[in-house]
Specification:
With about 300 residues, the protein is of the alpha/beta class. It has one domain: UDP-N-acetylmuramoyl-L-alanine:D-glutamate ligase (3-Layer(aba) Sandwich). The chain is built from eleven helices and 13 strands. The strands form two sheets. Strands 5-4-1-8-9-10-11-12-13 form a nine-stranded mixed sheet, with helices on both faces. Strands 3-2-6-7 form a four-stranded mixed sheet. The longest helix has 18 residues.
């Protein structure tokens, strides 16, 4: 099954308590597509500048990602610079240079319009809606958003929310969007806005799935090394959507399984800077960590004495 992602490809400069990297490969579409490529065919729509290193595109192509939708425009590539403290759940943005991304207006190649699964990464909600206008009859549509769009473009965001099957947000964004402090009350309020399913990412505390009356909690994988949380949420979404596309099913049981695959890919992403860890893993590594999730979370009823 084909999986389309529309979002950013960027050059990131990141500083954490464990090191520092300059001008590394980043962007929501990049992390998502790389993670999803372990499961299914991925099509990417994004824009880069004249300065974007060809080696990065070569890497994405080596993962089997269709890059027909990535345009190289005159100007500089989108750049983001951020710093994390030991509280790795939240980045301090030091600099954002939108550059060619400022005028990004995604146009899908004709060969992308029949995509079965669609993920709208973190871009303006009006642009997300215009992407939905261009796809014919996808089996599942999903979107991400952030605090800025919730604060500045709420009417447009609410319009797009009514058109998607799955929304991904973190817990702070869920509270902001719903106006509710309790995360379960917040989830109910958000689903009343339109999305049929909701995934709330909670960083090191795992993630929650709300699915038409069902709820599922997926813990985070216990790690001894966390170098860089940049892209963890997009890697989670890539694993989730990739696993669904591979299975060709969207029932609750498959959604639960997809949550674990999302957690697996997110756990790998944070173990190194940029996409360095995702470059190294194999299908066998993914299967092993998935089985570890099963082992760590399995339990039985207490025996009756």
């Amino acid at each position: 099954m084909s999986l389309l992602v529309v979002g950013s490809v960027a050059l990131d400069s990141v500083e954490t308590p464990f090191g520092k990297r300059e001008q590394t490969l980043g962007g929501a579409a990049t992390f998502f597509a790389t993670s999803a490529s372990f499961y299914t065919q991925v099509r990417a729509v994004a824009v880069v500048g004249e300065d974007f290193p060809q080696e990065h595109l070569n890497f994405l192509a080596s993962r089997g990602i269709d890059l027909s939708g990535i345009a190289r425009e005159k100007g500089k590539t989108f750049r983001w610079k951020g710093r994390y403290t030991f509280a790795l759940n939240e980045a301090q943005t030091l600099d954002t240079q939108l550059n060619v991304f400022q005028s990004f207006a995604p146009v899908l190649p004709d060969s992308y319009r029949d995509s079965d699964y669609v993920f709208l990464a973190n871009i303006h909600p009006e642009l997300q809606g215009k992407v939905l206008d261009q796809v014919r009859s996808p089996k599942l549509t999903a979107m991400d958003t952030m605090n800025y769009w919730i604060r500045e473009t709420l009417p447009q965001l609410q319009k797009t929310l009514r058109r998607v099957d799955v929304l991904f947000v973190n817990d702070a964004e869920a509270r902001q969007l719903s106006g509710e402090h309790n995360i379960f009350v917040a989830a109910k309020a958000i689903m009343a806005m339109g999305p049929k399913r909701l995934v709330i990412k909670r960083g090191e505390y795992g993630a929650l799935l709300f699915d038409q009356g069902h709820m599922f909690f997926c813990p985070a994988y216990p790690l001894t090394e966390v170098f860089d949380p940049t892209g963890a949420g997009d890697s989670f979404a890539g694993g989730f959507m990739g696993a669904l596309a591979q299975s060709k099913h969207t029932s609750h049981g498959f959604l639960r399984r997809a949550m674990v695959h999302g957690a697996v890919l997110g756990s790998f992403a944070v173990e190194r800077f940029s996409l360095d860890r995702l470059r190294d893993i194999s299908d066998e590594d993914i299967r092993f960590r998935f089985s570890e999730f099963q082992r760590l979370t399995e339990f039985s009823e207490l025996p009756v004495e």
